[in-house]
Amino acid sequence: MREATNESLRFLEEMRNEIERKLGAMRVGQGSTTITLPLDSVDITARAVGRVVEVTLTQVFKNPYSEHLEAEYVFPLAGCSSVNGFKMHVGGRTVIGTIQERRLAREEYNRALSEGKRASLLEQERDDVFTMQVGNIPPQEKITVELTYTEKLEFFENGTTELRLPLVVAPRYIPGTALSREQV
Questions:
Q1: Contact 139, 63 (CB under 8 A)
Q2: Model pLDDT for residues 68-78, shown as the tens digit of each residue
Q3: What b/e readout covers 71-110, taking b as 16+ CB neighbours within 10 angstroms?
Q4: Among the four 114, 121, 127, 179, which has the fewest Cβ within 10 Å?
Q5: pTM of the full structure
Q6: Torsion of the alpha carbons at 144, 136, 168 and 32, rounded to the nearest 10
Q7: What CATH topology corresponds to 2-152?
């Protein structure tokens, strides 16, 4: 019976990982383990004018734990996107993002955390991957993240266009160090 239970738990864990991979996840590092905060809801609103679309992505997460947490969320956007708005609502407060030089933004974020304030930091890692850090998430609180971005839509010969909403950061090929051996 114990083996069947372990197999069921593995199956449920695989299902949970598959759902997280498709919908995004906010993760917290606790020592050598990673805790995933549950995704409560997702709302996507898009408004197109000509070949430009403005998309607002709203995601709600919850801290089900009994301690304040700092979490990280990595999410993809199309390579031709431009983030132009960021808000985080948590514990009855709203944090509105401003654009700053990376070093100054990180210093301000760390200062806010050390003062016990709620803070978030949104950084562009690559042209199509953004990382968000959220600090001092109160226990049992919901975290609402609202990201607004614009994107130029591709125009096809038949007069149509399409909007793709990537929800998964796919693994990338990153070349390693060349082996020291004779060339073939």
A1: yes
A2: 888 887 778 87
A3: bbbebbbbeebeeeebbbbbeeeebebeeeeeeebeeebe
A4: 179
A5: 0.69
A6: -150
A7: Immunoglobulin-like (2.60.40)
